[in-house]
Each structure stands twice: as C-alpha cells, then as structure tokens.
C-alpha cells in the first residue's frame, strides 16, 4: 500500500506544475503568450529539479517495495506516526507488527527520504559486521558528542577507529577486567552500607535507589579509568562528580542547539544554562589535564604495578599518546560506562521487586555463595556463571528487556547491501537493541517478559533461547560492539549480589509503575523509589515471611 501511495505522490509532483500551467493558459489565453522567458525558465528549472532530485530517486530506490508499517499519515508518511509513545515502544511495535524479511522501511514526509530498520540476524550481521565500515554514525550526532568528549573511541570512524580500537582493546581484555573485581566488590560493599543506612533512616524503608547506584558506578569508572576517586557515593556534591554530571549529560535541547549553531554564537546567547554547560566543559577538560599530569608524574616516579591497573595507565604503557587523545578516551569511558551500568542495575532492582519468586531464588544463591565473606577478598571467579548461574541469568535477562542503550543509528557512507538488498549511499539504518531484544520472531511469544530461566535451560540456553547470538543486541556486535561488555557484566554482578544477599526489594506502594526517561541511555523517570528491607532486621524478616505465606 505504501508503495502505491508513494507512486501517487510522486506522479502528482510531476504533473502538478504542467497541469497548473495548462489551467492558467486555458483560463487566460493571453497569460500563455504574455509570460516572460524568465518565468518559463524558472518553471522549467523547478520541474527538472523535482524530476531529477525527488521523483527519479524515489522510482529508482531499491527500498521502495520493502515492507513498511501500515499506519502512515498521508503526506507525513511515517513521521512521528505513533504520536506521543516513547520511541523504544514505537520500534518494538514496528518490529513485532510488520511482517518482514529483515528490513523494515520508514518513509519521511512526501517520501522524500527513508530510514531502514535492521530486524533480523542476517541483516544485523551485514550492518554490524560484514559491511561494518560502510556505515558511520551520523555526522551531526558525532559533532555534538565530540564537543563534549573529544575524539574518543565512540566518536571516530574508519581507519582512525580501527587503529584506536587496537590500542584500547587490550585494556578491556578478560584478564584485565577480572583484575578489577576487588574494586567492583569493594564498591558493592560500600553501596550496601549506604542503602542499609538510608533504609533505616527513611520512613518505611522507602529509598530512592537510582541516585546512590549512579554515584557508585561513577566512582567505579573514575577508579578503574584513571585511578581517581570521585567520592560521589560519599558526597553527593563532590566537585568533580558535579562538574562531570552537568557537562556530560546536558539537556537534549542543548545538544540540539550545539549541533546546529556555532559555539561562538551559543556563548553570546543570554541564557545562563548555555554558558554554565560550556564553561563546565572547559573546566572538566582542565581538571582532566591536571589529573593526567599528576598520574604521569606518579607513574614516572614510582613505576609500581598499582599504576598499571587502571585503563588509562594501561593505554599509556602501550605507546606515546597526546594528552588530548588520553583525555578523550577517559571522558568516553566515563560517559559510556557510567550511566549504562547504573541504568542496568536500577532496572534489575525494579524487575526483582516486581518478581518476588525470582528475587527469592537469587537471594538464596547470593547469600549461600557470599555468606559472611568479606567482599574485598572475593575475586572474579566467585561470580562466574558456573558458580552463580542464576545471578548471571538475571543480569543477562535484565539487560535483554531493558538494554541501557535502546537505540542506535548509522548512515551509509558508500552504496552497500543489507540482506542482499542494494542500499543507496546516504541511507540511515536504525539498530534498536530494545526492539530486537523484544522481537517475538527472535525470542518467542514471551519476548517482552522477564524470564531469567531462558538463560538456564533448553538447547539454546547460552543465547537465552534465541536461535542466533545476534538476537541479543544489548552490546551490539562486530568491530563497533561495546568494548566494555565484560567490564559491565562483572561490575553488575559484583554490585547486585551483595545487595540481594542482604536486602529484599519491594515496590514502594501497591500497584507502583515506573516510566522510562532518557534518550541515549534509559533510566527510571524521576529516580526509582523502592522499599528496601534489610534482612538483618528482625522486623523486616517477619514482614517478608508474612508476604511469602500470603
Ligand atoms: C550495561 C552496560 C553497557 C551497555 C548496555 C553498553 C552498550 C553499548 C552499546 C550498545 C554500544 C554501541 C553504541 C553504538 O555504536 O552506537 C557501546 C559502545 C561502547 N561502549 Fe558500552 N555499554 C555498557 C557499558 C560500558 C562500559 C562499562 C564501558 C567502559 C568502561 C563502555 C564503553 C564503550 C565504548 C568505549 C564504546 C564504543 C566502542 C566503539 O565504538 O568501538 N560501555 N556500548
């Protein structure tokens, strides 16, 4: 149907102007002859433009006959066709309700441009792996990220990316990440104490858990990234943490303005918010420069093993890099690795509070394995999937139903193919981990449900029951997949296990719901308030026991 609408729209484009001129001539015959040659020339140029730039590209576009969601809005086509729904749900609806062979096409107003969505393993493989470097992040998105983070791994393309990834990858190797387990475990213990304290001091044990979680993941990435302590968990208003928060997560409005309007002009806009963010960015870079100099000084003087443990020290030991290069990497790790894991942990607690039986099973595994052990003495092997299979399954499943980065986008920088279909240069592809992870074709009828057991039983347990590992899109795949995947998974386990061993998480009130906020990463809107029941507290144990028997 959309194809025929497109055809009608474009034929109308082609005929509109000649018909208009013919009517004018018919109505007023003098008009035809009295027209100046300039007027005819301008009409001719306009018509040629429509033919060559608008209609021929549509009729030649190999995507024009591919499936599209049905509910187009006449000339607006698929622009915002699902109204006010969050974009995560829009893509989920499209993937689940548009029969397709791996590509769905969304048309922009008047069928002038289109975007494709890769929906199945074969097409995802083409975009993310086989023809990965035919696709780049759109320039405008990169521009706004570069103005905050500099040219770090997440913002560079092509050969620059290949070279940078080779430098950074060893710092995220399995062995390197496992050495960070004591840091993750100590942070888990610290977070546990903060929640215990807050639960006893807040009425009914209702605690806003998202804030301490976000603060602890910031501390972790500061320590693991550059061996620096933000002290964000201890002090909500720690200077560096505040500076980082303000500048690295500016409002979407600022990003939009920053993308389209030159910096010298933004500085002159008489709104304090802009100036604050831009000055903050300059200050953050200055702070980072100081921290880096101090680190270099310490490394030169001491040459101790300890200094080689954090990521930036590891990179520095592998070559001679400029300060700007190192600061960009560091800010990239802070940005990519802080709110993503915080989001994952917050959603895990939310899902556990909604699924008490699953929480009981997890509590039993965590309390048995951790017992009264000192968290700081544990190593990475404690959290291996053979030793803590249910913890692993809960983390995988949380990240499946709530992937921290729900959508990403690329643009074809050359003509390429996806699933055998030729794709013109300039086409945009959406890769929506949220929607792919909830695709009923890939995951079955219960795709949207939280079922950790899918990672434990059955012939495809290693891939959560899906036929292909590509169905799990949380960290993407291929040369641009998340470099911090093992880091994030181990961190999540080390933080979640001590919490579930000690507390019971319950809804703050009956029928509680949470809305989703965020664009690049998703988080519970307005924070996450849960009843945190300390199981060392007799009263709490009793209520939990009563609830279990009810
Ligand atoms: C639950 C946690 C995490 C999730 C769900 C996640 C997800 C992702 C995704 C989807 C991408 C690809 C983005 C794109 O290309 O559009 C990505 C890239 C990246 N992530 Fe993560 N991430 C997580 C944690 C981390 C951590 C902890 C770090 C570092 C400490 C990290 C560092 C990076 C970097 C540097 C890239 C860019 C890789 C490249 O382009 O070569 N991430 N992540």
UniProtKB/TrEMBL annotation:
MF terms (GO), sorted A to Z: heme binding; iron ion binding; monooxygenase activity; oxidoreductase activity, acting on paired donors, with incorporation or reduction of molecular oxygen
Pfam families in the cross-refs: p450
Top-level taxon of origin: Eukaryota
Transmembrane feature ranges: 37-59
Cofactor needs: heme
Binding site residues for heme: 482
Gene3D superfamilies reported in the protein's UniProt record: Cytochrome P450
Keywords for this protein: Heme, Iron, Membrane, Metal-binding, Transmembrane, Transmembrane helix
Database matches in InterPro entries: Cyt_P450, Cyt_P450_E_grp-I, Cyt_P450_sf, Cytochrome_P450_monoxygenase
Family designation: Belongs to the cytochrome P450 family.
Protein name, as recorded: Cytochrome P450 monooxygenase
Species the sequence originates in: Exophiala bonariae
